[in-house]
Design a protein that fits this description.
Arc Repressor Mutant, subunit A, two-stranded antiparallel sheet, alpha+beta, 53% helix, 3-stranded antiparallel sheet
Length: 192
């Protein structure tokens, strides 16, 4: 049994599906951040030539069961990441991924890593109230922490106003946080 065989722990890691699993592990490695299920799904759906959605779901399940991909607890609760054994496996087999797909993934990761990081840290939701208005719930998570660093609820008159506030949040969250912090904390520190 050669070195490369030691990274195939059981028959669940079928050779026919190996490329799909390697592609998924390569995505995790190149994104360099733990990813929420929604983020991984968006990456896969926006790049169907890498792996189709159903194959992605099956590959993710198998990678978790073989412990090549882990699911965070505590600060990274629910986030998926490439484990050390997954990195070792990928290191031995990444050449099985077509070079063109590796290049596409590298380019995609470089251009989108920060966007996904912000998207996962700056969350939002909105819902309709009984009086017909809408409440927009905006939040900032710190470094994948399960507790929110900031939560803001705003009542707006229409659904379109809720959608507009939510869509601006990812670009304005840091600025809003800094403004609130400066107004409430920094101004009070001068007299202490």
């Amino acid at each position: 049994m050669g070195t490369s065989d030691t990274f195939l722990p059981n028959t669940d890691f079928v050779a026919d599906d190996m490329e799909k699993k390697l592609i998924l592990m390569f995505i995790f490695e190149k994104m360099e951040i733990p990813l929420a299920d929604q983020s991984i799904s968006e990456i896969i759906v926006s790049n169907p030539n890498w792996i189709n959605y159903l194959d992605f779901r099956e590959a993710l399940f198998q990678l978790i069961s073989t412990k090549f991909v882990g699911r965070g607890k505590g600060k990274t609760d629910g986030m998926f990441y490439l484990t050390q054994s997954g990195r070792a496996c990928l290191g031995h087999f990444y050449t099985k991924i077509p070079a063109s797909i590796r290049e596409e993934i590298l380019s995609y990761a470089k251009g989108n890593r920060q966007r996904f990081k912000r998207m996962q840290e700056y969350g939002y939701d909105y819902y309709k109230n009984s009086d017909g208005t809408h409440t927009v719930f905006l939040k900032i998570k710190e470094g994948g922490n399960t507790e929110n660093l900031l939560e803001v609820r705003i009542r707006v008159p229409t659904r379109s106003a809720a959608v507009a506030a939510a869509s601006k949040w990812k670009d304005k969250a840091a600025e809003v946080y800094e403004s609130i912090f400066n107004k409430l904390i920094d101004d009070n520190q001068e007299g202490v």
